[in-house]
Structures are given as structure tokens and as C-alpha cells.
Amino acid sequence: MSKTVNITSASQFDGLLKSSKLVVVDFYADWCGPCKQIAPIFEKLSGAISRENVVTFAKVNTENQKDIAQAYNVQGLPTFIVFRDGKVADRVTGANPLKLQAIVKKLSEQVSSLQNSGGESSGGDGAVWRGAALPRGYTDITQHIEVNRTELLNVDNQTGGVRVLFESSKPSALSKSTTTKKDWVESDTDEQLMLFLPFQAMLKLHTIQLTSLPPTDDDDDEAPTRPRTIKLFINKTHNLDFDEAEDMAATQQIELSGKDWNAEGTASIPLRYVKFQNINSLVLFVVDGESDSEKTRLDRIRLIGEAGEKREMGKLEKIGDEAGE
After folding, report:
1. Does residue 35 have an active-site annotation?
2. Where are the alpha helices (H) located in 86-234, listed in sequence order?
3. Cα dist from 107 to 6, 45, 123, 242, 270, whole Å
4. E strands of 22-159, at which residues?
5. What is the pLDDT along the chain (325 residues), one digit of tens a residue?
6. Which helix (H) or strand (E) holds 239?
7. Contact 119, 85 (CB under 8 A)
8. Are the beta carbons of 186 and 224 closer than 8 angstroms?
9. Where do the PITH domain residues begin and end (predicted)?
10. Which residue in the list 32, 165, 197, 283 is annotated as catalytic?
11. Does domain 139-310 have CATH number 2.60.120.470?
12. What angle do CA 311, 315, 320 make, to 5 degrees?
């Protein structure tokens, strides 16, 4: 007997997202050939992995439930969306059984690990920590950063390297861990940082989430501070130098203030989405910090949006900078 839940209303769907820790949803249509081809694999996964109130598989007929499909930006069929704690965690568009199986296996293992340890989804070693909720309809695409080719300029070598920025664990500044590992980065000679992020796929970038957790000792003039002014540049084949970035018109410039940072030390930065379509790299330039400190600090970076086809590793296609550059 199938364990898959057939969704017949938006209220039923909302209730399911609240009652089950992990929900895997097949958005399909009766006329869709690829949907029919992958349906048996989806049912096999459902029968093998479903666990009451923990992992639930569901199907949404997009012809009958158009509001649900629209709410989660379902544009191609089939689309599979994985929800964790009611939030979008990942998605697969198209009949790609290997990718679907890999995503479901990874997330179900995380849920099992959390249950066995008694941990929460936002804490615990090995868990995926989120400093802020995901915008509805979009997923965390940080994994598409080509980490081996990232470059961070003006970093203090006594703090963590660039890789710590993309770790999925909770920052040590928020946990009770006694580790001496510095899992953050600070600027070195002044408050500026320059980060080059090449991608493994063409991305549509909707939001950047930055976590910064400097110490709160008001008496320490040398303590690092959070970023204030940030400039973003897209589709560069290499990192910029500081003078170049100072003079160049940014794809978007952001001014952060105290109200932008939540209790987890995270700022969610919405982007001018139309300008961040089909991008293969991002340069993030921290221009200055929110105080007079000569150091700025970053603990984590998350990229939120949609990912396209994966490209060959190590190759950046120049698809054109924004007009006027």
C-alpha cells in the first residue's frame, strides 16, 4: 500500500508541512510524460523511506492545485521540492532519478541523526544550521560555489580560511562548543574584504544571507565589527583589486544597519533579482564596517535562489557584465 499523500487542498498541504519534519513533494500533471516515467521511482522511495511525522512523501497535481504550484514557483514538470521544518530545503526540476534519490537520502539521514541525538534542526554538530529562514519558493544554493577556486583578499591568517564561510554547522560563537577553532574570518590591515565566488552552475540569485558575530565587549576598540557597506559584482572571471572595486559601478550596493541583523547574527539581503539572473560568479566587496574598528568579521555566507545546469568544473563562461560596464 502506497504511503504517499495526495494533496487535495492548500490547508491540507500546510498542515502536512507543520506535522512532518521532512516532506518530499512531487509536483506533476496527468498529461506530463516524464512525470509518469519517474512516478514509480518516487513511489519506491516513498515506500522505503517514509516515517510517520518524520519523512512524508506527497503528490500535488498542478492542474488541480494551481495556487500551491504558483506559491512555490513551479515552472517545469516534474518538479520535486524537499521541505524541512516547513521550509524549502532543495528542489529538482525534471525527471532526474539519481539527483532525487541523492537529495532524499542525504536529508533523511540528517533527520535520523537529529532524532537519535535528540538535537534540533538548527543546532547540533553535523546538522544544517540556518541563521535565517529561506525566502518562500527558493532554496539554499551555497553548495554550487566552486570552493577550490574561491579567493578572499585582506584576510587575517590567524582566523579561519575562506572555506569556513560555507560550513553548514552552527557558528562556534552561538554554540556551547569549547573548540578553539576559529570558524570565522576577519579582515587584516583595514576593514575591507574582497571575496570571489565562482559557481559550478549558472545561478539565479535571490538573497544573500550573511552571519557576523563579533564580540560584544564595548571596551575593546580593537574588536572586529559587522559589515556595513557591501558592493556586489557579477560574472567576473577573477577577483577584483580594491582600487578597481572602489571606482567600478556595482551590480548592487547594500547599506546595512543594526536592524538588519537578527538574533542569530544574520542579515538577509534581498537582491534586485532581475540583475542576478544567469550568473556564473559573484564578487562580494565589504567596503566598511558599522563602527570605527579597523576589522570586519564574517562567520557564514549563504546564497539563496535557483540553480541551472551544472557546467564543466574550472571554466567560467563570460555571458556579459551588466550594461554600461
Report:
1. yes
2. 97-117
3. 21, 13, 15, 40, 26
4. 22-28, 55-61, 79-84, 87-93, 139-140, 151-153
5. 458 999 999 999 998 998 888 899 999 999 999 999 999 999 988 888 888 778 899 999 999 999 999 999 999 999 999 988 888 888 899 988 888 878 777 766 665 554 444 334 433 334 568 899 888 888 888 988 998 899 999 999 999 999 999 988 889 999 766 666 899 999 999 999 999 999 988 999 999 999 999 987 655 667 899 999 999 999 999 999 999 999 999 999 999 999 999 999 999 999 998 999 999 999 999 999 998 899 999 999 999 998 875 555 444 444 444 434 4
6. none
7. no
8. yes
9. 130-323
10. 32
11. yes
12. 90
Q: Say if residues 251 and 234 touch (Cβ distance below 8 Å).
A: yes
Domains of the chain, by residue range, sit at: 5-117, 139-310
**C-alpha grid cell, residue 311:** 557546467
- What is the distance between the alpha carbons of residues 231 and 245, in angstroms, rounded to a whole number? 8
pTM (two decimals): 0.61
Which residue in 22, 23, 35, 114 is the catalytic one?
35
Fold (topology level) of 5-117 = Glutaredoxin (3.40.30)
Length of the chain counted residue by residue:
325
